[in-house]
Design brief:
Length: 86
């Protein structure tokens, strides 16, 4: 599987196009920023239905929430996933 284009199935069962060649809009409600659906814009550690995120794609303003003091490796999350964590 290449990273430029692939399809993944989300937690709600919908199949989406993803990869760094796929352009989309940031999934934060109200944001119109154009982004690529690459791993660096992904909420969670893997595309589709990650256990540690929502699998959504966000611009740099709406991704990047993590506990900077933790020594465990962590994925970046969107704000709503970050707030749901313990
Ligand atoms: Zn999320
Ligand atoms: Zn955004």
């Amino acid at each position: 599987m290449g990273y430029a284009y692939y399809t993944v199935t989300r937690a709600d069962g919908t199949e989406i196009e993803a990869g760094y060649d796929v352009t989309a809009t940031c999934e934060q409600v109200g944001c119109t920023e154009e982004i690529a659906r690459g791993l660096d814009n992904l909420c969670g550690s893997e595309p589709g239905a990650p256990e540690d995120g929502c699998g959504g794609y966000f611009c740099s303003r709406h991704l990047g929430y993590r506990d900077w003091e933790s020594e465990e490796p962590q994925p970046e999350n969107c704000k709503s996933c970050f707030e749901k964590r313990d």
